[in-house]
Amino acid sequence: YLRRSLFLFDTIGIALYTVTGVEIGLRVGLNPAICVAVGTMTACFGGVLRDILCTEIPIIFRKEIYASACIIGGLVYVILDYYRVYPEFIAVISGFTVILIRTAAVIFEIKLPNIYGKEDKK
């Protein structure tokens, strides 16, 4: 039960940080591609620090869909902003996109391929 709760809060956290990073980048006039990168880094590097402090391999370096969900959510934000959708809707839609992709990936066990061609031991 605790593991599911932590997963849910982690997923909500990366969604919020993705939206915040992209929004701030667009607000200061950065290129949209840079904004997606900033949002993804903002969301993912907190988890990297957490995992390093817990002496685990950071989740971003495993096969789980983590940064990919943030990238897609950031792209949704940039596209909706380009079409001048209300900012409140943009934040909610792109945040839910991150949450849905990450949750679906875990539920349906969708993983990224391993570059070494070996199965993950965890």
UniProtKB/TrEMBL annotation:
GO terms for cellular component: plasma membrane. Residues 8-81 form the Glycine transporter domain. The chain crosses the membrane at residues 7-24, 30-53, 65-83, 89-108. The keyword Cell membrane applies. It holds the Pfam family Gly_transporter. It is found in: Cell membrane. Keywords: Cell membrane, Membrane, Transmembrane, Transmembrane helix. This is Glycine transporter domain-containing protein. It is a multi-pass membrane protein. InterPro entries: Gly_transporter.
